[in-house]
Amino acid sequence: MTEQLHSLGDRPIVITGGCGFIGCNLADRLAAAGHRVVAFDSLSRAGAHENARWLKAQHGERVAIVGGDVRDVIPVTDAVRDAGAVLHLAGQVAVTSSLAAPVDDFEINARGTLNVLEALRLHNPNAPIVFASTNKVYGELTGSADVEQDGQRYRPKSPALRTGASEATALDFYSPYGCSKGTADQYVRDYARVFGLRTVVLRMSCIYGPRQFGTEDQGWVAHFMRRAMNREPVTIYGNGLQVRDVLHVSDAVDAWIGALSRIETVRGQVFNLGGGPTNAISLLELLNRLAAIEGQYPQVTFADWRPGDQPWYVSRIDTLKAALDWEPRIGIEPGLASLHTWIAERFGASNLSRTGVRA
Q: Are strands 300-303 and 85-88 parallel, antiparallel or unpaired?
């Protein structure tokens, strides 16, 4: 799909959060296809410095690393002023962090996104922008009374919901993180309607894959895998029956580039981006798969449910499939295998528990 971006000419594609997990995978794919990329990143998260070095080693001058924070108007404006397109992934990404520091969460996710939108509106209104939203804009969606146990997973009692939550699902922001991302989501949508910007919103479910430095608060698939590989206990908040649809990062990158490639036909629209019902998995089911890979069931401890955790969430992705002629290609088994290979190569069998990934 990258060949369809010829209309950008030699102008760079700016990726805010370009040294994060999804951002660096996008930067890698675009640079490999010959596009100039600017990775605008605060470099504050674990793994960001390493991803920046990896991008430079892979692509040299084709990728520029620009340190900056989306909360600062002038650096944001300087970054996007001459952009051919903007892929906006910079953000505070954890519900738990939003509970600890809701004002910071708002400033990064809501105000930071508004800064990017205003910079484009005032200085580069023709540049398309694709925004990383979240399934958390739909809120809890199902409470404990709305789901029933089916083996080692929950399923909704409502048959209509079992095919996934569509974009028509009512918004119900839950947790400071849900509120800040939901605010940004609606601003991006409205800047298309009111100011004519060429925007697309992608409400993402659980993305996983290589270059993900998972933590307990975010990136749970990689976090569980790293803990299992290092023979360390995994903490499950709740009972482990909660379900998510997961999507390999390579498929996610295809969708992001597809949205940018077809901006004239999808501008102003909102899409769910996830693995869909065929790639849904519960926490307990993931542990079983990790046991099969490692030859040993992970150590598990259980703790109380955390605020904002959804017992069941699966994206309905029919709209995105039709709009982009896209669908997930990498199933859970090969997807986990690719992540396992990367973790083993990156951390080594004797070094998996080390957290000093910024050095």
A: unpaired
